[in-house]
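Let's practice the habit of predicting before peeking. Look at the sequence and jot down your guess about where helices and strands might fall. Then scroll down.
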Amino acid sequence: MVFWRVLRQVVAALWPSHGGLTPLQLGDRLLAEGKAREALGAFLRHAEQYPADAADAYCRAAKCCLRVRHQELPREVVRGKTLAAASSRDAAEQLFRKALVLKPRHFDALIGLSELVPPRSAERLHLLERAIAARSHTPTLLAIGDFYRDVLNEPSRAYHYYQRAQQQSPRNRDVYQRLAEACRVLGRENEAQHWMNQLQNLADRLDEVYEEQ
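Done guessing? Here is the structure:
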């Protein structure tokens, strides 16, 4: 009886229950309350205590890093075994990379890291393509298309991704504008006009819906 009482006291001291919440759940609550620094610590504790969830925890921790100043980062982020960070952005990048080591197809980590690497780098394109292989996602399709259009000057590849985005999100107006622009660059004026007509039809339908409301 004494043994189990002492054991419960030790567990409570090492891992406070916070109403039965795991550190991950506690971190989500703290983040919702605007306490990013405290949430960051909770997510890092979760990664250590629950290795199976470490990728999710590191990804959440990375997002917290982007919401706090470098001098506010917990010590374990700045100097400890988790990573050595020169800035909040650097800490976030390293945490996203740690998540991807554990789960290479972790969508949020791929997208998060793609927003931190140089915007015109081959690594960013590689991250976006890995993300779209993990989950079909219209903004990511558009981002890949924009990369082929603006960085690599490959309008036909850009068109391919814009078309996939249109098939997935036929009510997204930005898609039609990009498709029309790509067709003009490719010298396909008739198709460009087709997409602009589709855009106008979509706008008219949405206006009718608003009027009915």
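How did you do? The chain has twelve helices and no strands.
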